[in-house]
Amino acid sequence: MRKTRGIIALTITSALLSINTWAKDNAVILLYHHVSDSTPKVTSVSPDTFREHMQYLTDHHQVLPLKEVIETLQNKQPLPDKAVVITFDDGYENIYDNAHPILKEFSFPYTIFINPPLIGNVSYQLDWQQVKTMANEGASFANHGSQHTHMLTKGDSESDESWLQRSIQEIENAETILKDNLGYSLKYFAYPYGEFDSKLQARLSSKGYISFAQHSGAIASHSDFSALPRYPSAGIYSNIKSLMVKLNSLAMPVDNVYPSDPKIELPSYNQHLSFNVKTEDLRPPQINCFQNGQALNKSLDGNTVSVAITPITKPGRHRLNCTAPSISEKGRFYWFSQPFFMPTAEGKWLD
């Protein structure tokens, strides 16, 4: 495999499964925050638009509980075609006021990732009575940490191991509160702001957690269960026409992703990214990669696709998306997304 500075390389290998199995080994997870007309637009979807999304799902997809989808994929069992999961982050009260009635009307299961210490203690958050009412009417609840903070932030004199131990303890404390109040522990964790690094991934996995991020893509049995992608579905991503394409996407089968750590440092991103793609259901010349919505130049060398990356120079959250049309599933695209997280020069993380 060729390693080139500023280059993303994809090696295409022979399929391990029949191409006809990919659509059944696949699900899409949607991510919402606010369902409201009066909250920040970047993380909000209006009740009318949310209803439009739910109507499209009932007409074209099968909405399943998160737990059922995760366990089915882990057991390498088939899912219904075009399976979808609905999730929310942060436990805002407007989910109860505006989203829950619509979800109840459609009889859709869904999962909310909450910060248990904030429940009932912050005015804009759910309270435990609301949580229990929703839990009795189709919702499940999972862990979003003790506080909604940037988990990659370390104290001035904090070692990597001390930071990891503190972070895991905060997550474990939140999980205990969830179990005490709801009677179950899913051990599902959603990274606040979608931010993580390889150390946090590995430690959470060793503790038995399935973890969820905020970069794009479908999921499958071959996905990385320490950072499962979800499609943001609010703000600029709430347009139903663009959402249709994502809802019909397939998880691109990849392994040997390098570098494995999405955390990067200023002043720029000077590494290459490489991963192996394992399916005959796409043609390498049709792989296209995008950064900040801009198509990136690529070249082919046998089974290797190399794509030049624009240097990342600004702190914040970034992602690179690669897609390719399926040969067997007409009109559907394989999707792979690689996130990158960059702090400021002072080591701070941006909201």
UniProtKB/TrEMBL annotation:
Residue ranges occupied by any NodB homology domain in the UniProt entry: 82-337
Protein name stated in the entry: NodB homology domain-containing protein
Keyword Membrane: no
Cellular component annotations (GO), alphabetically ordered: extracellular region
GO BP field: carbohydrate metabolic process
Residue ranges of coiled coil: none
Superkingdom: Bacteria
CDD domains: CE4_DAC_u4_5s
Keywords carried by this UniProt record: Signal
Lineage: Bacteria, Pseudomonadati, Pseudomonadota, Gammaproteobacteria, Alteromonadales
Organism: Paraglaciecola psychrophila 170
GO terms assigned for molecular function: hydrolase activity, acting on carbon-nitrogen (but not peptide) bonds
Pfam families membership: Polysacc_deac_1
Record flagged with keyword Signal: yes
InterPro entries: Glyco_hydro/deAcase_b/a-brl (IPR011330), NODB_dom (IPR002509), Polysacch_Deacetylase (IPR051398)
Compartments in which it is found: Secreted
